[in-house]
């Protein structure tokens, strides 16, 4: 588990700590990586909790890092460093971490399972992360919210009425399918990193659009989706993480609460 300083537990010669490089002060896209590392009980350093963490992020953003002939320049965080490897992009990092952290199905017997899990992740990030971000920045990311408030209202109203139920409906169908297997999980009857991603997306949406998500939960059409959120939150390591200072509060990131955007749907 992460702390403000590198963990000090004893490690075998095969252990190589992970290093997550992300902006301090907000969960953001880095939270998907944190949840995977926390669920697995992996040793990692989170630069968001380091005193000079912002400078580490800026060094990668400016192209000062990485300084080697193998790793490519990276566009933006989240960034994962593991040994000599430095990679970016949330789904790409999770694709790397999933098998190493035991957050996929048995790939020996289900070699294509990783790609099905990745498909679920990409869909969740498209509709339940990227689109919500556009609700408060529908015109341009370089403009302040106040500069596009009226457009944001139109976007958010349409999102909670049409797009949010559509994506929750899709994941309800997945959870009702035979491929989901036994239990509350999306695929193969086993917790995978896709479940953690869906948890985080829904958790952020519950903060951003409380009226809409409460209404959708009460209607009962997406019961398995909300049950998955509860099941993830109750896992011992996740529950401990959520109650810790390592879990950063929602603020000025993807999931923001504005009263004027809090439509019921």
UniProtKB/TrEMBL annotation:
InterPro entries for this protein: Glutathione-S-Trfase_C-like, Glutathione-S-Trfase_C_sf, Glutathione_S-Trfase_N, GST_C, GST_superfamily, Thioredoxin-like_sf
Domain GST C-terminal: from-to ranges: 110-251
Record-given protein name: Glutathione S-transferase
Organism: Podospora bellae-mahoneyi
PANTHER family: GLUTATHIONE S-TRANSFERASE (PTHR11571)
Domain GST N-terminal intervals: 17-105
């Amino acid at each position: 588990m992460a702390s403000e300083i590198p963990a000090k537990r004893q490690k075998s010669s095969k252990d190589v700590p992970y290093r997550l490089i992300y902006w301090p002060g907000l969960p953001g896209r880095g939270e998907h990586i944190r949840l995977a590392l926390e669920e697995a009980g992996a040793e990692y350093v989170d630069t968001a909790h380091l005193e000079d963490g912002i400078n580490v992020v800026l060094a990668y953003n400016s192209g000062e890092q990485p300084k080697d002939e193998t790793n490519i320049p990276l566009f933006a965080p989240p960034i994962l460093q593991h040994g000599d490897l430095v990679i970016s992009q949330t789904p790409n990092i999770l694709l790397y971490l999933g098998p190493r952290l035991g957050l996929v199905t048995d790939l020996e017997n289900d070699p294509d399972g990783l790609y099905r899990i990745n498909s679920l992740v990409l869909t969740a990030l498209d509709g339940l992360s990227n689109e919500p971000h556009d609700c408060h920045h529908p015109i341009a990311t370089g403009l302040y919210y106040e500069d596009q408030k009226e457009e944001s209202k139109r976007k958010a109203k349409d999102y909670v009425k049409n797009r949010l139920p559509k994506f929750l409906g899709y994941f309800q169908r997945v959870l009702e399918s035979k491929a989901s297997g036994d239990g509350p999980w999306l695929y193969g009857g086993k917790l995978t990193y896709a479940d953690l991603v869906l948890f985080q997306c829904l958790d952020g949406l519950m903060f951003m659009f409380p009226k809409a998500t409460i209404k959708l939960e009460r209607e009962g059409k997406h019961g398995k989706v909300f049950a998955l959120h509860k099941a993830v939150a109750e896992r011992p390591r996740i529950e401990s993480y959520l109650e810790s200072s390592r879990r950063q509060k929602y603020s000025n990131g993807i999931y923001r609460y504005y009263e004027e955007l809090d439509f019921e749907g």
